[in-house]
Amino acid sequence: MLRILTKPLKETYSCIIRTKTTLDHSKVPQIVESELQEQFVRGSGPGGQSVNKTANCVVLKHIPTGIIVKCHDSRSLDENRKTARELLIRKLDNIINQEESIEAQKKRIDDKKSATKRKKREKLTLLKTEWKKRENLE
């Protein structure tokens, strides 16, 4: 039996291994294309002639909220359109869900991991100092 995956196997496992907890994606807002106003403009910054001649910078406006996102990460218009939509979803998620947004969930997980690492490090240094005192090595 052959199983076809829509995502590459490497991305799926790296995401599972990295977080080890499940993120709640149920509250992430969905974008309706009719609520978007999309413009293609010339980008700014380094790039010389290709930036000056091509309009591959994407400006997305979410009409109900008035949020504007500008993306000029790539030379490809399609990649910039895709990235701009991802940025808009992330912004909307942060505004609407606040503490339950995906970024807030990831931050909580990272804070918890760093706190456990810090506690382990402190415990190890305490054990080392106690051992040195016991062995009269100081």
TrEMBL record:
Domain of life of the organism encoding this protein: Eukaryota
Keyword terms of this UniProt record: Coiled coil, Mitochondrion, Transit peptide
Domain Prokaryotic-type class I peptide chain release factors per the UniProt entry, residue ranges: 30-123
Molecular-function GO terms, alphabetical: translation release factor activity
InterPro entries according to UniProt: Mito_Transl_Release_Factor (IPR052405), Pep_chain_release_fac_I (IPR000352), Pep_chain_release_fac_I_sf (IPR045853)
Family: Belongs to the prokaryotic/mitochondrial release factor family.
Protein name: Prokaryotic-type class I peptide chain release factors domain-containing protein
Source organism of this protein record: Ignelater luminosus (Cucubano)
Upper classification of the organism: Eukaryota, Metazoa, Ecdysozoa, Arthropoda, Hexapoda
